[in-house]
Structures are given as structure tokens and as C-alpha cells.
């Protein structure tokens, strides 16, 4: 039953539809088509555009991952894991801000590069702030 319906569409209805379409003989003939003739052509043109897109889509360049999706882009990339140790007792000031976005030009100290990183990626990373207790 389903195959019979599909066969009827392909063998009878589709050729009848195509015969009724106002297809001009030349490219310039498209400029002389009326609005109602264009509206009759619209479904066919839409299907042709969709088929064309689906045909070329595998050959289109893939969307690249945003470079900023990686956190550490350049600091100590030769190491499997980056670790910085700082003794709290060695803090010279009462507060110290350390970078967690890996964008700081003064790494490991924060230079507020995370603000631009967050705007570009929608991330919410911020610095690690160490406060020295004053006794």
C-alpha cells in the first residue's frame, strides 16, 4: 500500500506537477515571470536548494573548536601537569591574586586577563585570591 502510493506520486503526480510549472526556455525568461508564477515555482526551487545543500554539505569545512575553549594555551605545555607552589609565609603583601584562566602575561600572578577570556567564551573563571592573616 505504501509503495503503491509512492509509485503513484513518482509516476503520475510528479510529472503532472512538473508539466504545469511555468519554466521559461531561457535564463532571461525568469525575469518575465509574474508573481503568481514565481509562487508556483517556489516549492520546486526550495526542494532543489535543499538537495543542493545536502549534496555539498559533506564537503563544507567543519566548524573549528574555538581556540579559547582550551584553558592553557601556552604556559609550560611541555609538562604533563602544571603545578606552582607558593608558601603562604612568603607572601609580601596582605593579598595575592593568582591566575586560574592561564591567559595572564604575568603568570602565575593574575593580570585580570580572565575578564576578556570570560567575555569570549562565556566562562566564569576568576583568580585565586590568597589573604595573609595579620595577627
TrEMBL record:
Domain of life of the organism encoding this protein: Eukaryota
Cofactors (names): [2Fe-2S] cluster
Keyword annotations: 2Fe-2S, Autophagy, Endoplasmic reticulum, Iron, Iron-sulfur, Membrane, Metal-binding, Mitochondrion, Mitochondrion outer membrane, Transmembrane, Transmembrane helix
Sections of the chain in a coiled coil: none
Cofactor notes: Binds 1 [2Fe-2S] cluster.
Subcellular location as annotated: Endoplasmic reticulum membrane; Mitochondrion outer membrane
GO biological process entries: autophagy of mitochondrion; regulation of autophagy
Record GO cellular component, one term: endoplasmic reticulum membrane
Family that this chain belongs to: Belongs to the CISD protein family. CISD2 subfamily.
Subunit composition and interactions: Homodimer.
Role, per record: Regulator of autophagy that contributes to antagonize BECN1-mediated cellular autophagy at the endoplasmic reticulum. Participates in the interaction of BCL2 with BECN1 and is required for BCL2-mediated depression of endoplasmic reticulum Ca(2+) stores during autophagy.
Protein name in the entry: CDGSH iron-sulfur domain-containing protein 2
Organism in which the protein naturally occurs: Aldrovandia affinis
Amino acid at each position: 500500500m505504501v509503495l503503491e502510493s509512492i509509485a503513484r506520486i513518482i509516476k503520475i503526480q510528479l510529472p503532472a506537477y512538473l508539466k504545469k510549472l511555468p519554466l521559461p526556455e531561457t535564463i532571461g525568461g525568469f525575469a518575465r515571470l509574474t508573481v503568481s508564477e514565481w509562487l508556483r515555482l517556489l516549492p520546486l526551487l526550495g526542494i532543489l536548494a535543499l538537495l543542493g545543500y545536502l549534496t555539498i554539505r559533506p564537503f563544507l569545512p567543519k566548524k573549528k573548536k574555538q581556540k579559547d575553549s582550551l584553558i592553557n594555551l601556552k604556559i609550560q605545555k611541555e609538562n604533563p601537569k602544571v603545578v606552582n607552589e607558593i608558601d603562604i609565609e612568603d607572601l609580601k603583601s596582605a593579598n595575592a591574586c593568582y591566575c586560574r584562566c592561564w591567559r595572564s602575561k604575568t603568570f602565575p600572578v593574575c593580570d585580570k586577563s580572565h575578564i576578556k577570556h570570560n567575555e569570549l567564551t562565556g566562562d566564569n573563571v576568576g583568580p585565586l585570591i590568597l589573604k595573609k592573616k595579620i595577627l
